[in-house]
Amino acid sequence: MVDDPAAPVDPASGVLVAPPPAMAPAPRVEPLARPVRAQAPRRRLFWTATLAVAVLVTAGGLGLLYNDELSMQSANRALATDNESLQGQNLGLQGQLTTTQGNLSTAQSDLATVRAELAHPSLGIWNVRQSVQDQSQYLAAGIPDTFTYHLRLKSTGPMNVSILSFDQFGAAVKCVENGAGPTNYCMHSSGSVIGWLVVKSVSYDFHLAEGCAAYMVVITAPSKVTVTPNVSVTYNPASHATGTCS
User: Fold this and answer.
1) Single pTM value for the model
2) For the chain, what are the domain ranges?
3) Given pLDDT bands bounded at 50, 70 and 90, which one contains residue 104?
4) Could you tell me which CATH class the domain 122-245 is placed in?
5) In whole angstroms, what is the distance from residue 117 CA to residue 135 CA?
6) CA triple 37-39-41, angle to 5 deg
């Protein structure tokens, strides 16, 4: 009984040839594991996206910084403009202050002047033109006490002017009465405080009456003249007796 009908026979001897031993099946070769290359593009995409986001964020930040810079520059320009405006206003206020201070100084000066005038008021007392016809006539006026006497005279011809005390005036009258000479002579030769002979104008401030009521002014002329007085007084009482009253 042939177990294997398909056993091979040697054709030359007719002898049954044992079949060669069966070869073991070739071992199965498993494919080697290789790195997955599909992940590399994904990583590149991730980093590209990340870089793009970073670029966008950076650009946005730069845009914000640029806008902030523009805003700061605009604010600085506005502040500079406001500062210039304030400086101009300050200069204007300083000018107004200077003007006000000047006006205040002027007002204070005027006030001091007014106070002085109130403390020492002045007023005119004789300003009517009068004539002396000849050497026998005279013009006379009393000098008020507690005042400074401002004697201002002009005439159309030579005149003689004297300030006399009452006693001196009495002596001059006696000179005329005794026939010692005409009025034009006796009024200026019997003594005087001060006098001006043969003149056409007089300007003098008399102070002895500020503390004494004892003086008068006398005007004579050798011939007819017209005298124009402009006499005034200033209230200025002395703190003690003056002149013949002392």
Assistant:
1) 0.59
2) 41-119, 122-245
3) confident
4) mainly beta
5) 41
6) 95
